[in-house]
Structure formats: structure tokens, C-alpha cells
Amino acid sequence: MAPNVDDYGSSAARAIATGSGQVVKGIFWVRDSTVTKLDNGSIYMQSKLKENNKPHNVSPGVLRNLHR
């Protein structure tokens, strides 16, 4: 992601600049794939779950565990 990789004097500096660009690209790729999978999972769950208008009885123990 360095703007002028060719302007660096040593081959080590060019390698580091090129490698850091690949790391950044990899981070963005992982982020994009994770967001896509989360979106697909959300769509899947919305298609499988139905709205229920019945009142629910939740035990106090479950409510305590949810607040942790």
C-alpha cells in the first residue's frame, strides 16, 4: 500500500512495502468475507424464524443468566 514502492533504495525496503500491502489486502478480504457470511446467516435465520405473538414465560433464572 506504499505509494511509491519503486522509489525505495534497498530491496529489503521494497519487499517490506510490498508485503505490508499484501497484509492489508488480506485483512480487507477477511473482513469482507466475514460480513458476507454474517449477512447470509441473517437472511437464512429470518427465513426460518416466524414471528410469534404469543406471550412467553421466561424463568427468573434465565433472565439472571442473560444479564451476565
Order of helices and strands: HH
**End-to-end C-alpha gap:** 43 Å
Please outline the major beta sheet. Answer: none
Structural class: mainly alpha
Helix content range: 55-70%
Low-confidence stretches: none
Q: Assess the beta-strand content as a share of residues.
A: under 5%
Shape: elongated
User: What is the tally of helical segments?
Assistant: 2
Counted up, domains total: 1
Estimate the mean pLDDT confidence: 81
Rg result: 24 Å
Per DSSP E runs of 2 or more residues, the count of β-strands stands at 0
List the topology elements.
Elements: H1 11-48, H2 60-66
Descriptive account of the structure:
- The protein is an all-alpha fold.
- The protein has one domain.
- It is elongated and about 70 Å long.
- The model has no long low-confidence stretch (mean pLDDT 81).
Compact description:
With 68 residues, this protein is mainly alpha-helical.
Summary keywords:
68 residues; mainly alpha; elongated
